[in-house]
Every structure is written in C-alpha cells, then in structure tokens.
Design goal:
Layout lengths: L24 H6 L16 E6 L4 E6 L4 E6 L7 H9 L7 E5 L5 H10 L3 E6 L2 H13 L6 E5 L14 E6 L15 H7 L6 H11 E12 L3 H10 L2 E10 L8 E8 L6 E2 L3 E2 L1 E2 L2 E2 L1 H7 L14
Length: 304
C-alpha cells in the first residue's frame, strides 16, 4: 500500500462559527428526515470557514479550530454522532486503529486530536471521498501516520491482513437498503443506506481486522440495537457496554454507542444515559467534547 503524499499546511485565518442545526432542513426534507427524532439532538459541530462553489466544498473546522475539515456542501457532512464516537474510544498505548467507511476522514481526524494513537487507517469505497480524506489528512499534517485505502469492506481480506489492529471504529450506514427514501445524491445515499454493505458486513470486517482482545466501537440509531447485537454475535464478538444517547434527559434515546471485544466472555454493562443537552445548553460531557478535550462519559468507570 502506498503512503499518502505530504501536502500543504492548514490555511490560516479560518473564521469560527458554531452552527445550531445538524443539517440544512431543505436537504433533510429530500430524505423525509426533517421530523425524524433521530436527528433531534445531532447538531452540526463545525465552525464555518467559507465555501468553494466551483468544487462544492466548504472549509470548516472541528474542536474550535484545531482541525481543518473540507467537506462537500451537499454531500455527507460530519455531525455530532461522529464526535461522540471518537470521544467514547479508549485505547491502550501504541494502539493501531481502523475506521471502516471513513468517508472524508472526519472521524480519523477527531481520533488523532483526542487520543494520539500509533496509527489510524481508513477504508472507504467512494473514490471522491478517499481523495477528500487524503486532502484533509495532508492539511492537518497527519499523512505520515494515517492511510486511507479505497476498498469494499465486504472484501476486507483483499485490503489488509487479519488481526492487524487493536481497535476498529465504525459509523456505518444507518438504514437498511430498502428502508425510507433514498437520497438522490449518491454520496449521501451510500453514507446513510446499506447500499455498499450491510451492518453485518461492517461488523464481520471488524472481527477479521481485530487482534484478540481488540475492540469494535460503533454508533447507530437506537432502533437498530437488535440488528447490531445479532451482527456482533455472528462475528464472534462479545458486547462489553452499551450507552444510549438522548437529545435531552426527557426524550427517548436517538442513538446507541456499543463496544464489543474479540475474545472473552460477554459481560455486558448498560451505562447511564448520555444526554446531548440539559435544557437549552449542551451537557457537560458534550461541551467538553466540542471544545476538543476528551470527555468522561457517564458510567465509563464501571468496566465489565
């Protein structure tokens, strides 16, 4: 596999602006998602630095300007679920991390900022997203420690060796292929629906890549928890903990985080709920995360 080419430094003078909506309502209406409670607590988490209309790109920032992120204006864009996943990760020293379906590389960048692992590799099927992820890594000067490989998670054996990483992270497509309206934008459709791989395919790929004792960390809509538990069992992974994410303490859970381990007996811990907001303000955990610091999630001290 070829190393990524070193590139330019991040641009200076990027304006910071906290946005309050997870996605533009007009775009969500295309998919019939505007009233979907799944997105109720998933606000956009980037600062805006302007757009490139000719390239359909925006130049944004994460963690109050610490990370530069280029992403398509009308394509798949980073949201709070990506940062919640990065914040929940716990790594041993010298860990190697694999991001399955890495998109534009936002999760890779967040993991580097929060955890400083030995390496983070990404696998992504869409060529345009691979090129964008490589550009984001170069602009944040992380190309020496990361690689993004164009490939299909259903053919993971052709991409990398088995038992090669200590952690796999995955923010897989949320919806089964024939569930709901498919976005006409192919990039967004593939990010949200199981067009290029089912949930089971992603979990099986994780099981192949993990060393014994390694962990899979993933985030999904709460209604997909039964599917996730079934997929983990088929891949011979043991669930370790589950945490439901709520838009606010009085709302039903919209998302679920889960860690599963390769090898060992299942000793599942249900962690306390993680609220995104308390009233109109972000919860302490989410505020810490958005500021670019590693948060302490409720109940994380209660290990299985």
């Amino acid at each position: 596999m070829k190393p990524m080419v070193p590139g330019s430094q991040p641009p200076d003078g990027i304006a910071l602006q906290q946005l309050e909506e997870e996605r533009d309502k007009r775009e969500r209406l295309v998919e019939g998602e505007a009233d979907d409670p799944l997105f109720e607590g998933a606000e956009a988490v980037t600062g805006s630095g302007g757009t490139r209309p000719d390239l359909d790109l925006s130049v944004d920032t994460l963690f109050q300007g610490a990370i530069v992120l280029r992403q398509r204006v009308r394509g798949d864009r980073v949201a709070l679920d990506t940062l919640l996943l990065a914040g929940a990760l716990r790594l041993p020293p010298g860990a190697r991390v694999l991001d399955l379906g890495c998109g534009n590389g936002a999760l890779i960048l967040a993991i580097w900022h929060l955890h400083h692992p030995a390496s983070v590799w990404g696998v992504e099927i869409q060529r345009r997203q691979v090129e964008l992820a490589e550009q984001n890594l170069r602009e944040n000067r992380l190309q020496a420690m990361s690689r993004v490989i164009q490939g299909d998670v259903r053919q993971i054996q052709d991409i990398l060796s088995g038992a090669s990483v200590e952690a796999v992270v995955c923010n897989p497509p949320y919806y089964p292929y024939r569930s709901g309206r498919i976005n006409p934008d192919l990039e967004r459709a593939m990010a949200r629906h199981e067009i290029s791989g089912s949930l089971g395919d992603f979990v099986q790929a994780a099981g192949y890549a993990l060393v014994r004792g390694g962990v899979l960390l993933t985030i999904l809509p709460a209604f997909r928890l039964p599917d996730l538990l079934s997929a983990v069992k088929r891949a011979h992974l043991a669930p370790r903990w589950i945490q439901f994410v709520h838009p606010n303490p009085d709302a039903a859970a919209s998302l679920v985080l889960m860690e599963a381990r390769k090898g060992g007996a299942p000793r599942l811990v249900i962690r306390p709920p993680l609220p995104v907001r308390i009233g109109s303000e972000y919860s302490a955990c989410v505020s810490t995360l958005l500021a670019g610091n590693r948060p302490c999630y409720p109940g994380e001290d209660k290990r299985p």
